[in-house]
User: What shape does this take?
Amino acid sequence: EPEVTQTPSHQVTQMGQEVILRCVPISNHLYFYWYRQILGQKVEFLVSFYNNEISEKSEIFDDQFSVERPDGSNFTLKIRSTKLEDSAMYFCATGTGAGIQYFGAGTRLSVL
Amino acid sequence: GENVEQHPSTLSVQEGDSAVIKCTYSDSASNYFPWYKQELGKRPQLIIDIRSNVGEKKDQRIAVTLNKTAKHFSLHITETQPEDSAVYFCAASITPGNTGKLIFGQGTTLQVKP
Assistant: This one.
């Protein structure tokens, strides 16, 4: 069964550093999403991406965040200058646009 | 804004009993309602979903009901087993569309005691 693949599984960084989280979508999926889950809390929407542009972003997705699909396969989330409160599990999800979204295993980001 | 409320936050049942988790949503345009199961440290896994043109859907021991008028939907698990223990999230979405973002409930921690 095809899966959404995320790397790395765990990223430790110093406050103020830039991080890039990577996702390889399921091959025929055209809709891409990033979600965040702070430990013990619910999953929160960050951004949706379709046709090589952001289709919607949440209040969490401020100027420190950006997404791109640089090579037609990887879908990346960049946090320019990490803060302590960015520590969370970040999930990539992809779908065909019919509603169902498949989640990757997540990247645990720890900002020290 | 868009919101999904989920209850209860924790649920403990004996093996073999039924479990019911309830959600309400605020955006009347929502038309797709998935349920995800998340085991500790793992990714959310879709277990069942329902669209607004259907009132009920069943898959073996799992069923979901939807009341569009009341903006309620519920997950029913019958004959619970210890491996059903996990956190369950409901979500709501508007689809099709180039957004299709999922708005999640707060989650229900289900514990099934052997």
Observations:
- The two ends of chain A are 36 Å apart (CA to CA).
